[in-house]
Design a protein that fits this description.
This is AzlD domain-containing protein. By secondary structure, this protein is mainly α. The radius of gyration is 21 Å and the shape is flat.
Length: 117
């Protein structure tokens, strides 16, 4: 039996759902089981937090410097200005994520509406 053995419209969706669940959920449950036994100040948990933060920073940098889609039409200066001001507002505003996102998004939209060179 192979993936192509079934000739129904729903089979690819079921296959993707099961394969996606098996590939990720097992690791999530193992992370919960192992993570509950770790101290909040342990070296392993500190390393995991550092890696997660680095990955998030890399994704954000990629979106700012090498965007795809509609964000590509916004000049890089506007993108850098929006993220800088949004982060500053996040810090000044008591670390409220929604506030920083709202300001950065507003600046991006305003920058996109500005006439081009």
């Amino acid at each position: 039996m192979s993936y192509a053995a079934f000739d129904t419209w729903w089979w690819p969706y079921l296959f993707i759902a099961i394969a996606g669940w098996l590939g990720t959920d097992i690791w999530r449950w193992l992370g919960v089981l192992v993570g509950n036994r770790l101290s909040q100040d342990s070296a392993a948990l500190t390393w995991v937090r550092a890696v997660a933060t680095a990955l998030l920073a890399a994704v954000i940098a990629k979106l700012i410097l090498y965007p795809t889609g509609e964000l590509r039409t916004v000049p890089v200066e506007v993108r850098l200005f929006a993220v800088t001001v949004g982060f500053a507002v996040f810090l000044i505003g008591g670390k409220r994520i929604w506030l920083g996102i709202a300001v950065a998004l507003t600046l991006l939209l305003a920058g996109q509406l500005l006439p081009g060179p």
